[in-house]
Write a structure and sequence with these properties.
The radius of gyration is 41 Å and the shape is flat. The protein contains 7 helices and no strands. By secondary structure, the chain is mainly α. It has a domain at 17-94.
Length: 167
């Protein structure tokens, strides 16, 4: 089996004006991470290296994101100011951290009588014909149960020792 070598060309990455413009445009579209790098014509490794070597590349990406957000905020604000009620509500909810007031009103009165509830429960219990009287369960003597268990364990180990064949 033969392997063909892939041609390796080392690309020099610099923050030229063209690279910065492509990064800005990709960020303005809303791309992030590896998608942003590939759309700008860079490998993800090259993009990360460029951001480490030259902070202006990272600034171009931040500027693209900020400009995209500003343009969308402008569209929402203009729609809200022109009378679009849904956009006004969205603007208030997401930009101004506003929530509509919520009122819950409960009307009516009802009183609960504990003594009346107990009387009704006793009447239900006393009127039951299908109730079976059950004797209380007695707890076995704990010492006796432990002694029986120990005796069984001892006899089982002595029988097992008796059954071991001699060599």
């Amino acid at each position: 089996m033969t392997f063909k070598s892939l041609p390796l060309t080392v690309r020099e990455v610099k923050a030229t004006e063209a690279v910065l413009e492509r990064l800005y445009a990709s960020a303005k579209l809303g791309l992030k991470g590896d998608s942003l790098a590939v759309n700008a014509g860079l490998l993800p490794v090259e993009f990360r290296r460029l951001c480490q070597m030259d902070p202006i590349a990272e600034y171009a990406v931040m500027k693209g994101h900020a400009d995209a957000e500003a343009s969308m905020a402008r569209v929402v604000q203009e729609a809200a100011l022109s009378g679009d009620a849904k956009m006004a509500m969205e603007y208030l909810r997401h930009r101004a951290d506003w929530t509509a007031a919520q009122k819950v009103e409960i009307t009516g009165s009802q009183s609960i009588s504990i003594s009346l509830a107990l009387e009704q429960a006793q009447a239900r219990v006393l009127n039951r014909e299908d109730v079976i009287d059950v004797e209380p369960i007695t707890t076995p003597d704990l010492r006796r149960a432990l002694a029986d268990s120990a005796a069984q364990t001892l006899s089982a180990t002595t029988h097992a020792a008796d059954q071991v064949p001699a060599r």
